[in-house]
Amino acid sequence: MDPVIxxxxxxxxxxxxxxxxxxxxxxxxxxxxxxKLIGVLKGSxxxxxxxxxxxxxxxxxxxxxxxxxxxxxxxxxxxxxxxxDTIEGxxxxxxxxxIDTGLTIRYLLQTLASRRPRSLGLCTLLDRTTRRLVPVPIxxxxxxxxxxxxxxxxLDYKQLYRNLGYIGVLRHEHF
Length: 175
Ligand code: IMP
Ligand code: MG
Hints:
Blueprint: E1 5-10, H1 12-29, E2 35-41, H2 45-52, E3 59-68, E4 77-81, E5 91-99, H3 103-113, E6 119-127, E7 140-144, E8 150-151, E9 167-170
Parallel strand pairs: 2-3, 2-5, 5-6, 6-7
Antiparallel strand pairs: 1-9, 3-4, 8-9
Residues 43, 156 line the site of magnesium ion.
C-alpha cells in the first residue's frame, strides 16, 4: 500500500466485482438498444473503460472536460473540451467518478439534456451523500463512501494517485 494512503476502502477485486454487477444492470436496462457512454475527464476514464467492458449492448464512448471555479462561485462550471459528436436522439449514460456536492453533475445534466438525447442517465463510481448540496438523480452507483477524501481508480489529489488500482483514504497530512 502507498504510504500516503491511510486505509483502503475498496480493493481492486472488490471494484472489479462491483463494476461487473453494475455493468450487468446497465446491460439489462438498455437491452435491445445502443448506448453512448459519456465520460468526464480525467477522473472517470478508469471507470469508463472498465465499465464499458462489462456492458453487453453495443456501446459508443465520448468524452468531455470541464473546469470549475469553486472558489469564486461554487457550481459555476465551464465545458473546457466538448463532446466530439452530437447526442440528439441517443440513449446517453453520463459516467462520473464521484458525486460530491452534486453541483458539477447538475450543470452537466442540464447541458446535455438541452441537446435532446432520447434518454439521459447517470452512473457514478462513488457517491458521497454527506456533502450533497443539490439533489441528483443517480441511476447506477457502485459504492457509497464516507466523508473523507479518497484517491485511486481515477480519483486524484493534485493530479496524482489516479493510477492506484484500489480506492483509498488519503492521509490528512497529504491534503
Ligand atoms: P461536485 O459533485 O460538484 O462537488 O464535484 C465532484 C468533483 O470533485 C469530482 O468530479 C472530483 O473531481 C472532485 N472530488 C470530490 N471529492 C473527491 C475526492 O474525495 N477525491 C478526489 N476528487 C474528488
Ligand atoms: Mg479531480
